[in-house]
Write a structure and sequence with these properties.
The protein is globular. A hairpin with a 6-residue loop joins strand 6 and strand 7 (138-140). It is of the alpha/beta class. It has five helices and ten strands. Helices cover 25% and strands 26% of the residues.
Length: 196
């Protein structure tokens, strides 16, 4: 299995630095590690998302790839299919994770049913797309469109480049695509229009 890429940790950002240190400081373990996978569920301990831990791991182990491997908005409620803050959570996480050295970002489930499942432990969640198994309807949520602001413009093989917002209300990240074009994603978390 020498051609397989192994990622370790595969849990939340809160303990990311501690676990990365434990594995990477062991030369026998570290030599097998291609990357480190992480999630965004720091809220289990009452914490906010800890993006700085991603940046510290990236600085300490620049030869290891950081991949956001799981995230979803919990506590499914069909009345909140179009809840804008669910999409904003994706946008903020993607921008801040990329700016801290993450090389790939994916959802937990791209498609779930009209109940936020199936899920054998009854942990029903939101997804970018929900399929109503009774009607055949596809419901696209704000998360779907937020992901599209990245996936439609940032090409495979793109490299993240320096980016800074001129207004503190904005989040931004930039990439250089293989074809030489620069892509900048800007997110305004406020309802007010901002000139920048």
């Amino acid at each position: 299995f020498g051609d397989k890429k192994i990622t370790v940790w595969e849990h939340n950002r809160d303990l990311l630095l501690q676990r990365a240190n434990a594995i990477m400081e062991d030369p026998e373990a570290s030599k097998y590690v291609w990357g480190i996978g992480f999630h965004w569920y720091e809220s289990w301990s009452g914490s906010k998302q800890m993006f700085e831990n991603v940046g510290m791991v990236n600085e300490m182990y620049p030869d290891k790839k950081l991949i956001f491997t799981e995230g979803c908005n919990e506590k499914f409620d069909a009345k909140k299919y179009q809840f804008w803050k669910n999409g904003q959570r994706y946008g903020e996480s993607m921008i801040k994770d990329f700016n801290n050295g993450t090389v790939a970002w994916t959802d937990w489930n791209i498609l779930l049913d009209q109940n936020g499942g199936p899920n054998h432990v009854k942990n029903f969640c939101f997804a970018p797309i929900h399929g109503d198994t009774n009607t055949g309807e596809l419901i696209y949520t704000p998360s779907y469109y937020f992901i599209g602001h990245f996936s439609k413009f940032i090409d495979k093989g793109a490299r993240r480049i320096s980016s800074a917002a001129s207004r503190s209300q904005l989040l931004t990240t930039s990439f250089l695509n293989p074809n030489g074009k620069v892509v900048t994603v800007v997110m305004n978390k406020k309802k007010k229009k901002i000139t920048y």
